[in-house]
Amino acid sequence: MHHFLRLHRAGIAAVVLGLLLVAPTSRGQMRGDPLKTDVMGVFAHPDDETGMASTLAHYALGQGRVVANIYCTRGEGGGNMVGTQAGLALGILRESELRACLEKLGVRYCYFLDRRDFAYTESLSATLQRWDKEETLRALVRMVRALRPEVIVTMDPAPTAGQHGNHQAAGLLATEAFTAADPRRFPDQLGQEGLRTWQVRKLYYGGWDENLQTVIAITNSLPDGRFPWQVAGEALSNHRSQAFGNFAASPRMRRAQLFRLVKSVVPPEPEQDLLRGLPVTDGKALPIQLAPPRPPGIQVEFASRPAIANYQRWVRAQGLDGIARGMPSDIAITAGEASDIKFSISNSAATEASGEVRLTPPDGWTLRPAVVAYRVPAGRTTQLTTRATPSAGALGGYSLKAAATGTGLTTEATLRMNVVPTLRAARASEEPSLDGSDRGWEGIPFQSISHTNVWEGKVRDEADSSGRFRVAVRGKSLFLDIHVTDDVVVTNIAPDDIKGHWRSDSVEICLDPSGGAEHTLGCYKLGVFPSDSTGVVRAARDADANPGPLPDSAPHTRVTSHRTPRGYRIQASIPFSEIGIPYARRIGFNLLIYDGDKAGAAPGENINKSRLAWAPRSGIQGRPEDWGRLDLD
User: Fold this and answer.
1) Structural domains of the chain, count
2) Are residues 391 and 463 in the same domain?
């Protein structure tokens, strides 16, 4: 009997202690609003919460706040480091990993917008077209109105090099969902679905830039004695299919979490709390202009590649000038050829403006004209053009500066120019061989890919990773002969796992029928493993017009592989019809070399150490604009 009473009293004590330690009830839930949320994260894929995971744990576990995460996709188009699941099957696996992760972080709610993660792309426009932007925004606004978050944290929508177009889309959609308080947006949700409008109080982009305002400390201990960064590391290690298995030990988890306030109903100031200044009653929750208005006068601006031009227009339309990340205008131009450079003068003053624009090219470049006169009526914009010719041998990044003067004002702008290489394919007198010999290749010059042509990772020297290649045309087919120098050739990809060529040693042949597309979804991109784990050459198209294993996606393309004393040699024959062109002409072209160097790598393990390219630039695999140009005629 005494034993029972002791157990009974111990049980009561445990319950009382549990009640003391349980997360406090949110204000919304006390008012009978069971879904009321303090912090909502909006992301593209499972694992995108990585850069904010410690912050989510800080609020959910450390402060007892209600945290909800919204994901646009289930990550169906990603890689898989633990199995062969792909497509919808991979989405099932990744959702399971995600829910295990969020449970450890203390995130209470997790919802999906059920968009498809179709492939890697840097293109926001392609993403929004595939997702049907308006319907996706409708679904996200529904979530905002249902969950009524105080704060939204999301991904930066700026099209920085290597930034996934899906990530950009998540940030853009979250920003536009800030208007969930507007009853004119999706009014059927208010009538038919019984929801109410809701004004989010604050919206943050994650990550650092020049407009950083908010730093969240992750070294304050949680009630159980652990730190938010420790919990985040353990939670993120659940994303094993994305190679996060050892995240708990990563030193990066100890870094402070950085955010930038971009929309708000409370005045901005340096802060260490996303919920600073809250709560705010509904009647006083009115968005304020965070950026000072641009003073009236003239403004010079260079025309840019579509992704950046669209972003710049969207930033202005959202009132984020000076708040969102600034993206300088940027274009690709072809080496050895004159290119038109377009720019504009806008006049926001009340009277006509006139003057001149003085353009300063890089040393050795030709610019005609270098000085352009302008006259712009009040409230109008004038388009102007100059013609630039790069200096001999120019490749890579350069800048063109413009200074517009007039009516007592001076304004400046800078254009980043990426000079891309050109190459004319040789006309082969006989069909070049694919048997590892030089028959048919005689006299065709090699092009080099130096070990310094790095666009990701590090390369020790030429022996570590480098290459040379030659290109020929015979009939209506393109022929390539690629010699890769690699001191440790790894073949750890199984025959039933021919995808994700970047995981191991491989080359990627990149062909763009349009010669400068904004994204790769109309291209031909072939990743070639020198051999699988059984010694057979394997290839698959990736993130292009027809992705999939070579026999299915390009059945008339032929690929062979041969080991050499210094590495390996890939030879290929690709019909124009599979590239997507009916006849010989100029196309976009690049050749990428992936190197792993991990002898004894596990089957399917992602060992990628470095990436080289004939035309290198960060994020180059997804940006055909910055590929070189190949003349086939």
Assistant:
1) 3
2) no
What letter would DSSP give residue 620? G
Rounded CA separation 184/561 (Å): 60
In a domain, 401, yes or no: yes
Question: Tell me, what's the pLDDT at 13?
Answer: 42
Describe the chain by its helix, strand, coil percentages, rounded to 5: 25, 30, 45
Each residue's pLDDT tens digit, 539-567: 999 999 999 999 999 999 999 999 999 99
Query: Is 103 a member of any domain?
Result: yes
Q: Would you mind telling me the total number of residues written for the chain in this entry?
A: 633
Question: Measured between alpha carbons, how far is 525 from 546 in angstroms, rounded to an integer?
Answer: 9
In a 3-state reduction of DSSP, which class is residue 95? helix
Q: Are residues 262 and 388 both part of a single domain?
A: no
If asked whether residues 460 and 386 sit together in one domain, one would say no
- Domain annotation covers residue 357: yes
* Together in a domain, 443 and 530: yes
Residue 61 vs residues 65, 236, 254, 329, 557: alpha-carbon distances, Å = 7, 16, 17, 43, 55
| Residue 24 confidence (pLDDT) | 45
The DSSP-derived string for 168-187 is: HHHHHHHHHGGGGG-TTSST
pLDDT score at 211: 65
Q: 3-state class of 401 per DSSP?
A: strand
Considering the domain architecture, whether residues 193 and 337 belong to the same structural domain is answered as no
Residues 124, 78: one domain?
Answer: yes
Can you spell out the DSSP letters for 495-544?
TT----GGGSSEEEEEEETTSS-SSSTTSEEEEEES--TTS--EEEE-SS
Same domain, 235 and 316: no
Tell me 444's DSSP state.
Answer: P
Boundary-marking domain end, from 420, 442, 476: 420
Phi, psi at 237, each rounded to 5°: -65, -10
Instruction: Count the Cβ atoms, other than its own, within 10 Å of residue 125.
Output: 18
Q: What is the largest CA-CA distance in the chain?
A: 101
Instruction: Find the domain containing 624 and state its range.
Output: 422-631
3-state secondary structure of 121: coil
**How far is residue 600's CA from residue 594's CA, in Å, rounded to a whole number?**
17
What are the pLDDT digits (tens) for 468-499?
A: 999 999 999 999 999 999 999 999 999 999 99
Peptide bond into 369 cis (omega under 30): yes
The CATH number for 234's domain is 3.40.50.10320
b vs e for 298-310, b when ≥16 Cβ sit within 10 Å of the residue's Cβ?
bbbbbbbbbbbbe
CB-CB contact of 283 with 233 (8 Å) = no
**Assigned token pair, 357:** 């624009």
Domain assignment present for residue 2? The answer is no
pLDDT tens readout for residues 201-242: 999 999 876 666 788 988 889 999 999 999 999 999 999 999
Which regions in the chain score pLDDT beneath 50?
1-25, 27-28, 30
The pair of structure tokens assigned to 349 is: 């003053």
Three-state secondary structure along 255-288?
CCEEEEEEEECCCCCCECCCCCCCCCCHHHCCCC
CA distance 523 to 126: 13
Both 323 and 438 in one domain: the answer is no
- Give yes or no for a contact between 177 and 144, defined as CB atoms under 8 angstroms apart: yes
